Amino acid sequence: MSAICGMFGGCACSVSAKQDLASMLDALEARGPDGLAGHTDSRQQYALGLRSLKLAPGDPDNAVLVNEDSSLVMVCDGHVFNHQELDSWLRAKGHAPRTPHTCELLLHLYEQEGIDGLRRVDGQFALALFDSRRRELILARDFLGVRPLYYSASSAGLVFASEIKALLQHSEVPCAVDEIGVSHYLTFLTVPGPRTLFAGIQKLPQGTAAICRPDGSVELRKFWDLLDEPIAERDDEEFYVERARELHHAAVARRKVDGPVGALLSGGNDSSANAALMAQYGCQPLHTFTVGLAELEGQAKYNDLDYARRVAGLIHSQHHERLLTTDEFLKTIPVTIDAMDDLVSEPSSVFLYHALRLAKEQNLRVVITGEANDELSCGHGEMIRIRERYYQRWVPFMQKPAWLRRAAAALVPLVSPQRRAIMQRAAAGDEYFWNFEIGWMESEKAQILTP
Q1: What kind of fold does domain 237-375 have according to CATH?
Q2: Contact at 8 Å (CB) between 101 and 60?
Q3: Which terminus of the chain has fewer CB atoms gathered within 10 Å of its CB, N or C?
Q4: pLDDT value at 151 more than 70
Q5: How many Å apart are CA 198 and CA 193, to the nearest integer?
Q6: pLDDT > 90: what percent of the chain?
Q7: Are 319 and 288 in contact (CB under 8 A)?
Q8: How far apart are CA 228 and CA 40, in angstroms?
Q9: How far is the first Cα of the chain from the last one, in angstroms, to the nearest whole number?
Q10: How far apart are CA 175 and CA 193, in angstroms?
Q11: pLDDT score for 244
Q12: Are 13 and 45 in contact (CB under 8 A)?
């Protein structure tokens, strides 16, 4: 984890630009405590900053990266996992990467193929790249948006940073509430991009590049989407099992690092499989971490610690655990809210915070976890029922004429009010599934929001 920030346009050559960049870098120290770097060009009207975190004591300092003729300048928070194959491919094309930082390959991929070159990457990254030939600043974020990146654009130019709290340190970025963002948060328990809870501050969507110009204009260009090459569903369980196993092995193998490494371990399928594969691929010493709630642990539905201990014993990891009291849990909530910056209403973030504190106490710089196994594998029973209703009811209904769907949506409040929202989506041709967890329905928000 590192962090980037910077500005482009008139704000980059104002009298406060130097102090603004320094203030943003200071706000990002927690993400990159091992050093900082910067590059400013007032003639070209841009400034780039970088905060770095070393994965091991002997690692080189992160730096502002440039290509062979210095026409491209980049800062990047991230890591490229398929760096060996990309390095070979780029050298065959005549490029000469000069640093040990895998992120430098992103610079040369852009030089070779433009934004589309990022499609070749297996990695996590958030980058800012100044192209002096086009006089454009390119912001880009990895396929699934693992690394965060936010920006604020106005007539004064563009300001960007890895965290919102850093953006708010800039003198041109106002601190104001986005009321639509708040409404979305109450529905989805997070704020779907590109909005945030702050007016004028946007999150760069995953798999997307922002082409920024000095006047503050921004053009978004999607370079990767999960649905670009959809695979048709098939009634072949073995295909899915073997393909998931193949991809999982490859993902863990590419994330192997030299030296001590940690894994978050709940005892569930996904974290246990991750930790087991890390042990299989020789991650040593391997530390595992589990945090539970003292008042619930041991009950039939809450036995993470027991299963985590069993897995840790099987893979011979150095296991660490902690039980929180309810009071400790509640006192941690404000801390996690401040740390998250862009809110997600997820109680597990409290346990995640304490698990990572355990990892920090062991002086670990690399901790691996996994996300979305329930969503991918229908880990909750209701997810299976959602899928069944989609094929049994939604697909046939959406094949009906549009006028019939609109008529049904108009009548449903009279006979089945609880289906009003889904029938309205059908009438409008929208998606069947919005979100697995809904906080407040639109009809309920009037009870908690005022104009």
Answers
A1: Rossmann fold (3.40.50)
A2: yes
A3: C
A4: yes
A5: 12
A6: 60
A7: yes
A8: 37
A9: 40
A10: 18
A11: 86
A12: yes
3-class secondary-structure state, position 65: strand
Centroid of chain to Cα 166:
17
- C-alpha distances out from residue 72 to 97, 127, 221, 297, Å: 13, 12, 19, 54
**CA dihedral of 103, 110, 116, 100, whole degrees rounded to 10:** -20
**H-assigned helices in 257-399:** 269-280, 304-315, 326-340, 348-361, 373-377, 381-389, 395-398
- At 394, list the tokens: 């939604």
Name the β-bridge partners of 40. Answer: 47
What pLDDT score does 298 carry?
67
User: Which residues are 220's β-sheet partners?
Assistant: 210
User: Rounded to whole angstroms, how far apart are CA atoms 78 and 76?
Assistant: 6
Check: CB of residue 127 under 8 Å from CB of residue 160.
no
What band does 189 get if pLDDT is binned at 50, 70 and 90?
confident
What is the distance between the alpha carbons of residues 230 and 372, in angstroms, rounded to a whole number?
A: 19
Q: Do 237-375 and 3-222 have the same topology in CATH?
A: no
Q: Which residue has the higher pLDDT, 54 or 359?
A: 359
> Domain 3-222 adopts which CATH fold?
Glutamine Phosphoribosylpyrophosphate, subunit 1, domain 1 (3.60.20)
What would the pLDDT profile of 108-143 be if each residue is shown by its tens digit? 999 999 999 999 999 999 999 999 999 999 999 999
pLDDT at 211: 98
* Beta pairing class for 261-264 and 286-293: parallel
Domain boundaries, the chain: 3-222, 237-375, 393-435
